[in-house]
Amino acid sequence: MTELPGIVITGGSGRMGQMLINTVLNSDKAKLVGVVDRAGHDWVGQDIGVAMGGAAVGVTVTDDPVQVFAQAQAVIDFTSPAATVEFAGLAAQARAVHVIGTTGLTEDDIAAIGRAARHTRIVRAGNMSLGVNLLVKLTQMVAEALDDDFDIEVIEAHHHHKVDAPSGTALMLGEAAAKGRGVNLNDVSDSGRDGITGARTKGDIGFSAIRGGDIVGEHDVLFAAAGERIVLRHLATDRAIFARGAVKAALWGLDKDPGEYDMFDVLGL
Ligand code: NAD
């Protein structure tokens, strides 16, 4: 029998980390070979199954990524930008596929990740769900079909712990709308409106962020013109959709050449 590919989950105590661990433990296509969390976290040194409130699974949480990445074929990483940049370099050294779900990355972070991708396969997406990636494609098509008499607004809602805004998904949708319109998002992006902002500039792509409770992730792309509106909507009700997409991306990346990929590549969209 061939060995199943080994996956390491970083940020194991996080909302996504725990979901990813359960997804890998329940998978018949991959096995969990390591869990990393930040130095000083209570869970470091504990069996991950016990730390999550269940039975032992034989994998101890570590704060030493180098040692566990060396045993992995893939690393799935939903942590923070600083941690993700560090993990990109270490996953490249270990030649492990690096699946990045972390959002809020700066241009410098993305450049550093690009350098790591010369040595391994990196799949990065602000949203790993099939539904959202379809929504991105639809947004581009609708923006292409409509002229700038239609104002484009991206409205997103997330739980009250989320630290970055607009969400990575909202930015993906904004990029798709800009691409459909043949413009650069940086030139037309309008976010964080407050106070006397003046009238809306024609052609802008606006962003609004709602934060509250336990909302997993909701995104609307609104195309508003005089007399009519089109709304494209995705509602995530379970983080499992992101975890399933991430595990799929890790397995997909195993036989690919080094380079940067996204979920459109994985899903063949
Ligand atoms: P969270 O705060 O619940 O979890 C983050 C985890 O990372 C924690 O366990 C924390 O201890 C760990 N961490 C931080 N720094 C670390 C380090 N240096 N080394 C090891 N572990 C470290 O956050 P969350 O809700 O799970 O989200 C995590 C990230 O994933 C965010 O950027 C979020 O926006 C993103 N996200 C992406 C998608 C997607 O589909 N791409 C979906 C949901 C969330």
TrEMBL record:
One GO biological process term: diaminopimelate biosynthetic process
InterPro entries associated with the record: DapB_C, DapB_N, DapB_N_CS, DHDPR_bac, NAD(P)-bd_dom_sf
GO molecular function, one term: oxidoreductase activity, acting on CH or CH2 groups, NAD or NADP as acceptor
Active site positions, chain numbering: 158 (proton donor/acceptor), 162 (proton donor)
Keywords from the UniProt entry: Amino-acid biosynthesis, Cytoplasm, Diaminopimelate biosynthesis, Lysine biosynthesis, NAD, NADP, Oxidoreductase
Residues the record lists as binding (S)-2,3,4,5-tetrahydrodipicolinate: 159, 168-169
Catalytic activity reported: (S)-2,3,4,5-tetrahydrodipicolinate + NADP(+) + H2O = (2S,4S)-4-hydroxy-2,3,4,5-tetrahydrodipicolinate + NADPH + H(+); (S)-2,3,4,5-tetrahydrodipicolinate + NAD(+) + H2O = (2S,4S)-4-hydroxy-2,3,4,5-tetrahydrodipicolinate + NADH + H(+)
Residue numbers binding NAD(+): 11-16, 37, 101-103, 125-128
Principal location class: cytoplasm
Pfam families: DapB_C (PF05173), DapB_N (PF01113)
Record-annotated Dihydrodipicolinate reductase N-terminal domain positions: 7-128
Subunit-level organization: Homotetramer.
NCBIfam families for this protein: dapB
Function noted in UniProt: Catalyzes the conversion of 4-hydroxy-tetrahydrodipicolinate (HTPA) to tetrahydrodipicolinate.
UniProt similarity note: Belongs to the DapB family.
Entry-linked PANTHER family: 4-HYDROXY-TETRAHYDRODIPICOLINATE REDUCTASE 1, CHLOROPLASTIC-RELATED, DIHYDRODIPICOLINATE REDUCTASE
Protein name: 4-hydroxy-tetrahydrodipicolinate reductase
